[in-house]
Amino acid sequence: MSKKNYLFMAVISIFIVLLLSSISTVASAEMKAVISSYGPTNQTETFDQIKAGRMAVKGERAKRQKALLNSRYDLTTKTTTKVVMSGGKPIPTGPTAKLNGTNWMELDKMTPEQIKGKGVFPYKPLPFSDHAEGGMLFPEMITKLLPRLIRFDLDFDLPEHILPDPAPAMFLTTRPDLGDVAKGRLITIDNYYEIFNGILNPKQLEGLRLLLTQFPQQQFNATEDRRTDRPSLGVTCFDCHANGHTNGANHLVGDIRPQEFRHRIETPSLRGVNIQRLFGSQRALKTVEDFTEFEQRAAYFDGDICMAAKKGVNILERGSQVHFMAEFLSILDFPPAPHLDIYGELHQAKANTSESRGQAIFNGKARCDSCHPAPYYTDNSMHDLKAERFYKMEMANGMMMAHDGPIKTFPLRGIKDSPPYMHDGRCFTLEDIVEYFNLIQQLHLEDKEKTDLVAFLRIL
């Protein structure tokens, strides 16, 4: 081969190599851009490597979340003992939302478009502590009582004064004469039998035992990609729904992809399950049995059935175990409301002037009863508030502030026991929830009307 031909072939060879390399790079970029519905079930890293990677980003992401919360809210402790939770804990007072460069009166005069354009809506969707990571996360007041729920990679982000009682009161529809059965105790697998034997029937007792039994979950299991230092048996239903209520634990919903579009979800109370007809903030499952199975089979594992298979899903038997759990759940009652009559409305002889005015506003100008009618203050339906009218769709700490969509109407009975509010906990106090709906519904409530409405909500 001549020197000229050799040089020509060399140039062609180099060109082909560069072309193939370019194609490979593009293909690789395209592969990386693919968003999968599935998680990585076949880990290539050891537990120590996974933990090291998570710990390397823990501090910075916690700092970023704290900065976001401080920019949106006044997190100083503000509570009142005039009205307390059923377990005796003072309730938080607000509003806590910070109004950067404006005030409530100015906001009330703006249109949704103006609020959105100026970026001053005070109750935007709330990201998870580390939204890219997700998973069940428990407040310190609970991990102190149950150290097995400590995650090495994340700390809880909300202050304790805006959370429910760590050991909430528990009321039973079958034994209202007993009042609070828990009496300040956190019901666990260690004490349930002693407390409830002789009160529950055998099926209910077995259902309660299962609700207090650990089952594997995405972050709490025995695999190398767990988020606990030691292998874990998992979590229980009542780890989040403490005493059949809630302790403020949160996670990300399992039924949305990709990750940045998943909603932070606050644990709702299980009180009054017997009068509810829809289950799940957005899933609209039709029975508590459906919800129990859905949670344990899939939602525990970020909605990924492949992860569930890997990490040890425990398939409950529908005709006995799920049925027994549901039978116990169906007797969890709302707390007593001495100011309400047999129709669930205000007993005028027991109400003060502010509460009476609040009920009139609730049923009148504020139109709250359109979705929250007495006696249980729910219409057992779902509603899309279209809150996205007020804020831009943009990223916030790894979460896309997208549309909320239709959300279940949760009962308002005993609402003072359940801060923070909304499905993602973006409203920390009852005052915040009143301000939120005043804007969303464009009610133009006066300050006195807001105060009276809060007074009424506190006695439900």
Secondary structure topology:
Elements: H1 3-33, H2 47-72, E1 79-84, E2 90-92, H3 104-109, H4 112-118, H5 140-143, E3 171-172, H6 192-196, H7 202-211, H8 237-240, E4 250-252, E5 264-266, H9 288-297, H10 305-311, H11 318-329, E6 332-333, H12 353-363, E7 382-383, E8 395-396, E9 399-400, E10 407-408, H13 430-440, H14 447-458
Antiparallel strand pairs: 1-2, 3-6, 4-5, 7-10, 8-9
Features:
globular; 460 residues; mainly alpha; 34% helix; 14 helices
Provide a descriptive summary of the structure in words:
By secondary structure, this protein is mainly α. It has one domain. 34% of the residues lie in helices and 6% in strands. It has 14 helices and 10 strands. The chain has a two-stranded antiparallel sheet with strand order 1-2. The longest helix is centred in the first third of the chain and has 31 residues, at 3-33. It is globular and about 60 Å long.
Mass-distribution shape = globular
Strand content: 5-15%
**Portion of residues within helices:** 25-40%
Counted by DSSP, the helix tally is 14
For the report, how would you describe the main beta sheet? Answer: 2 strands, antiparallel
SSE order in H/E notation?
Answer: HHEEHHHEHHHEEHHHEHEEEEHH
Classification by helices and strands: mainly alpha
**Total domain units:** 1
Strands, count: 10
Q: How far do the termini sit from each other?
A: 95 Å
- Rg, please? 26 Å
The mean pLDDT is 93
